[in-house]
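Minutes, project huddle
Topic: does the predicted pose make sense with zinc ion bound?
PN asked that the exact inputs be recorded in the minutes so nobody has to dig through chat later. Recorded below.
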Amino acid sequence: MPRAWRHWPLVLIAVTAMAAPPAAADAATWWEVAGPSAGAPRAIGSPGRGCLDGAIALPADGPGFQVMRLSRDRMYGHPQLIRFIEELAREAPSRGWAGLLVGDLAQPRGGPMRSGHRSHQSGLDVDVWLTPAPQRRLTAQEREELGAVSVVASDGRSVDRATWTPAHAQVLRVAAEHPDVDRIFVHAAIKKALCETAVGDRRWLRKVRPWWGHDAHFHVRLVCPPGDAECESPEPLPAGDGCDPSLEWWFSEEAAAELRKPKAAARTITLDDLPPACRHVLRGG
Ligand SMILES: [Zn+2]
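Predicted holo structure (C-alpha cells), as shared on screen:
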C-alpha cells in the first residue's frame, strides 16, 4: 500500500479537528471575514483597538490614484477616508505629484490585522506611497511586486537627494492641510526636511509627526467622523510645528538604542480587547 494511504485515518482525524469551531472567539476572524458588515458606516474605538461598521471599498483605480497589493484585501475604509483619498488624488497633480499609489487602508470590517500594522483598525488610516504613480495603469501583478522607494538617506539622518523632490513636500502639505486629517506619520528625516524648507503658512507642519519607518510611505490618520459616538479621538497633538528639540530626539543615541532593543512579540488582540460593538460588527451580516 502506498505510504500516504496508510495515513488516511490520521488525515481524517486531522481534518475533522480542523473543521471544529474555534474554542473562543478570536481575532483571527478579522482577516478571514468576507466583505463589510451591513450597518451604517461608523468608526468604532481607536486605530489601535477598534473596528469598522459599514465600510466601503476604495476602487482599485480612480482619477489620480491606483491601489497597490490588491490581494491583501485591505482597501476598505470609512466613507470619510475614501472621500479624503479621492480628494487628495484630485488635488495632488496640480502640486506636481503625478498620482497616488495607495497602500493599506483597513480590512473589510477593520479590526486587528494578521501582519503589517498595529493600527489601521477603525477605517480612518491609510498608507500612501512616497513613490509617485506612473502615467499608466499598473497590472495586478505589478501592484503586488513593485516596491515603494525610500526617500531617506541610508544613515537615516536626512532625505535622499536622489529620490526626494519638492513634489514630495507638496503632496504632504496638501494632505496635512485637509480638514479631516488629524495627523500624518513620516520618518523623522522627512519631517526635518519639511521643517527646513516649508515657506509661508507653516501651521500644517504640526500635523506631520515623526515616527519609526515611514521612509517610503506616509501614513494618514483622520479625525473621528462627526456623529460617530464610539470613535475614540487620539491624544491631541502638542502645540507648535514640531520643528524643535522633540524632533532632534529622533536622531539621538537614545532613539538609536530604542530601535536596537529586541521587540517583544505583540500580544494577540482578542475580541475582549475591543469595544463591545465590534463583536456585532464581526459576527453580524
Ligand atoms: Zn500605516
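Observations noted during the meeting:
- The longest helix spans residues 79-91.
- The pocket of zinc ion is lined by residues 117, 120, 125, 127, 219 (CB under 6 Å).
No decisions taken; revisit at the next huddle.
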